[in-house]
Specification:
Helix content: over 70%
Order of helices and strands: HHHHHHHH
Strand content: under 5%
CATH superfamily: MFS general substrate transporter like domains
CATH class: Mainly Alpha
Largest sheet: none
Structural class: mainly alpha
Distance between the termini: 39 Å
Length: about 180
């Protein structure tokens, strides 16, 4: 199928074809990836503050990945009747809630629970966001460009988000990076 037939197949209602929507998904991707990988930079601080070993603290990196692997195939099937835009908004809200709980977690169990919740958001977000980015693209824009804009959020998160979050955590405590994200 060539690009012109794909563009013609996309509806151009007032709720679709918006650069703003594509940028919003990219910003959400930035926040999600920063949230996912920020523990790498603050692991020692988490272990010290919660009086646990660094190995045990490493579970805050592992648990979201395992939960994402479970959620990625299950969530899209569970919500297939819903508008994907609203699903993405809900998953982003879940990320915000998980990060808020993470930022203020006073014990390891609460922290691990918040990271488990984040894993649901991660799995569902990636299972939905890439496909949705093509539908959000203006009809004159190739789907690949819209997807590239969304994926730029990932690039900026790994290059800027995680290092800046880690740096801020050095000054304001490890929870601050999650709160800001």
């Amino acid at each position: 199928m060539d690009q012109s037939s794909i563009s013609k197949a996309r509806p151009t209602t007032s709720t679709q074809g918006s650069w703003f929507a594509i940028l919003a998904v990219s910003i959400a991707a930035f926040a999600l990836v920063t949230s996912e990988f920020l523990p790498v930079g603050v692991l020692n601080s988490v272990a010290t503050d919660l009086n646990i070993s660094v190995g045990t603290a490493g579970l805050i990196i592992t648990v979201p990945g395992i939960m994402a692997a479970i959620a990625a195939p299950l969530l899209p099937v569970s919500v297939k009747q819903l508008d994907r835009r609203y699903v993405l908004i809900l998953l982003t809200a879940i990320m915000v809630i998980a990060n808020t709980i993470t930022a203020f977690a006073e014990n390891f169990h609460i922290l691990l629970l918040s990271r488990l919740i984040l894993g649901i958001s991660i799995g569902g977000f990636w299972a939905t966001a890439i496909a949705l980015s093509g539908k959000l693209a203006p009809s004159h824009l190739p789907i690949a460009k819209a997807t590239a804009v969304v994926m730029a959020g990932v690039t900026f998160a790994t290059v800027l988000g995680v290092p800046i979050g880690t740096w801020l955590s050095e000054f304001y405590g490890w929870g601050s990076g999650f709160w800001i994200t």
